[in-house]
Amino acid sequence: MATSIFSVRGLFKDYEDKPVLRGLDFDVHQGESLVILGRSGSGKSVTLRQLNGLEKPDSGSVSFDGTEISSLAEKDLYPFRRRIGMLFQGGALFDSMTVEENVSFPLREHLDLEEDEILERVENKLSLVGLEGIENEMPSELSGGMKKRVALARSLALDPEVILFDEPSTGLDPMTSASIAHLIRRSQANLATTSVVVTHDIPLARHVGDRVAFLCQGVFSFLGTWDEAEETSDRVFADFLAGRMGDEDAA
Q1: Does the global pTM surpass 0.85?
Q2: Among 16, 39, 135, 163, which one is most buried in terms of CB atoms within 10 A?
Q3: Which pLDDT score, from 0 to 100, does residue 245 have?
């Protein structure tokens, strides 16, 4: 049986009395890439933020590598945050910092390294995402795709065991989106990471996902392989994959 790096049980989360997650249960297997799909507002990003403690559930539990982290204080989450990287939807680069300063930020925050070792790591991660030699450029000088790749390099800086991707292709053209999908797969293969990817982008999801989950009404109405997804009896999920308008849209 596959080893679970995350185990999520009975997760509930409301916002202003609006139910978002309604008893979510799932595991993330070590070394896999799990894609989470769902309509806008279904709670995909909320689910992702539960996995590294950025948000707390109203009830339920999130366990990472055997430790229940959902009830930990912020200071106690630090060791786990070093093991879990995250690529935020907008990239979340610091506009006032150079590329080198952005990528090295987690290294300087979490590790006690010599300056030459920091620079070597930055060069290595930028090379991994195909951006050699741009250390001194500012985010404002970069294209949208380059910003996403710099943000990916930063998320890889601490050599995390897990990377969480929140809508990695948002705002990108199809060709750039495809290059980001390739980078996600390549980083997973080269660094043996586990990935959880929240996306609306079906081509990207198919490229990077070993398993796919569909979030609907606060739970996963489907969780399985792409072969199983093609045979799903879940009509809402089948309509979503095919880009068809469901009954709730036609009403």
Answers
A1: yes
A2: 163
A3: 60
Do 22 and 10 touch, CB atoms closer than 8 A?
no
DSSP string, 23-38: EEEEEEETT-EEEEEE
Is residue 50 within 8 Å of 13, Cβ to Cβ? Answer: yes
Three-class SS state of 211:
strand
Task: List, in sequence order, every beta strand (DSSP E) within the chain.
Answer: 4-15, 18-29, 33-38, 59-64, 67-68, 84-87, 162-166, 194-198, 211-216, 219-225
DSSP at 3: P
- Residue 108's contacts (CB-CB under 8 Å, 6 or more residues apart) are 118
Query: Cα separation of 89 and 166, whole Å?
Result: 5
The per-residue pLDDT for range 167-197, each reduced to its tens digit, is 988 888 888 888 888 888 888 888 889 999 9
